[in-house]
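Checklist before submission:
- one chain only
- standard amino acids only
- sequence pasted in full

Submission:
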Amino acid sequence: MADQRTVLYLFDGYNLLHAGPYADARELVDSLASFVAVRGARGVIVFDGAGEDASRGPLEVRFAADADTLLERLAAEHRERDSVVLVTSDSTVASASGVGVAKISSQTFFRELEPSEHREERPKGLAGKLDPATRDMLEKLRRAE
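Returned file contents:
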């Protein structure tokens, strides 16, 4: 059944880093680890170059001499059993990942990610919809001042 397929996000590391608001790779990895964990998904972020592979909860951090080749291979290996989502703005990688793989550009991913980060900061209920002057006035009324 399609409902039981695990969602696997494949992230093009440096492509995302350069498209997003993060100061460094560590900050990006922290954000993506939270992103996949909240969604009950798994993820793999792949960076070009040498580094130490690691796991951050459901997010694997991988390094490869050619990140594009590894992303293409991971997409091919997992697209039959998982719902694969490739996040990259590299059109060559996106097209090489094949059919059966959802593709999201790095810019689109960050636009969609941004509102969910801000939702938690907003006060809930009516207080979150009132401007400060109105809140002050209502507080004075409540206190009978």
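Reviewer check: The helical segments are 13-19, 25-38, 67-78, 91-96, 106-119, 132-142.
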